[in-house]
Write a structure and sequence with these properties.
The chain is of the alpha+beta class. Among the domains are: about 70 residues; about 70 residues. Helix content is about 10%, strand content about 25%. Strands 2-7-4-5 form a four-stranded antiparallel beta sheet, with no helix packed on it. The protein has a four-stranded antiparallel beta sheet with strand order 9-16-11-14, with no helix packed on it.
Length: about 280
């Protein structure tokens, strides 16, 4: 006989089932107590209990907020009062915002002053004119020189020398006074005569050839010229261009000195160079 080891003793099946069959689920031992969950009703969801919050003292916060707002309002009022005191005109000139009722209170722009119209002066040019009809009596001047200018005051129109009251020939600016008793006036190559007697010189203390109005074109005083061949100058009491209007005159070929009085009406010079006050 061959040797056969003794078989291990079989343990009894605690479940009462043969080992060849699967164990049934119904007889499985229940879960331990620490795995058990509290019973819940179907369809009901329970929130976990929330910890209770301590009640806030709301009335203390409200009092604190009221005190802070009162302090801020007092500071703002004091600041606005100082601003109004220091700059009263700043707010007065501010434009109204979103308030149509204040639109009419805004100051309107100051209109620009209208320019005064320039005065007009009587003028005429070359020709022979009847005084009182073609031209009016008065004092006229040419504001610029004109070559070979010739003019004469007339007491008639016969064309003879007997009808000439006064005459002159010049290349420089001239002045003439036409009287109401004159019958006519003749001008040749003189350009425009005008009643505009305003200043024509750039300096009242330095001037050259021409006929000038004292205290308008030149100032009274003592002058010296630079000299010139055939220099002629005359102090004038008027502009009639007659010998009666000459206070003093002179011819010189070397530098000369003349004193123009404040009572003189005019001064005439030709070929003397430049006069300068000394």
């Amino acid at each position: 006989m061959s040797y056969q080891p003794p078989s291990e003793p079989q343990q009894p099946n605690p479940w009462g089932q043969p080992p060849s069959q699967p164990l049934p689920l119904q007889g499985y031992p229940p879960s331990p107590p620490y795995y058990q969950q509290p019973p819940q009703q179907p369809g009901a969801f329970q929130q976990p209990p929330q910890p209770k919050k301590p009640k806030r003292r709301i009335w203390l916060w409200i009092i604190g907020i009221i005190l802070v707002l009162g302090i801020i309002g007092g500071i703002a009022s004091a600041f606005n009062g100082n601003s109004n005191t220091n700059s009263p005109t700043a707010q007065a000139t501010q434009p109204a915002q979103n308030n149509p009722t204040q639109a009419s209170a805004q100051p309107t722009a100051t209109p620009k002053p209208t320019q005064k119209p320039q005065p007009t002066f009587a003028t005429f040019g070359d020709g022979t004119f009847q005084v009182g009809k073609d031209i009016q009596p008065g004092t006229y001047r040419t504001r610029v020189g004109s070559s070979n200018c010739y003019y004469e005051r007339l007491k008639g129109f016969s064309g003879s020398t007997n009808d000439i009251i006064a005459n002159n020939n010049t290349d420089a600016p001239a002045i003439v006074t036409i009287k109401p008793t004159d019958k006519g006036f003749t001008s040749q190559n003189c350009g425009t005569w005008t009643k505009d007697l305003s200043q024509i010189t750039t300096s009242k203390t330095s001037f050259g050839d021409g006929m000038f109005i004292v205290n308008t074109d030149i100032t009274p005083g003592t002058y010296r010229d630079t000299g010139g061949d055939g220099c002629y100058y005359a102090r004038l009491s008027g502009f009639g261009n007659t010998t009666d209007d000459i206070l003093a005159n002179n011819l010189a070929s070397a530098p000369a000195i003349v004193t123009i009085s404040a009572s003189d009406k005019g001064f005439e010079t030709h070929g003397c160079g430049t006069w300068k006050k000394i």
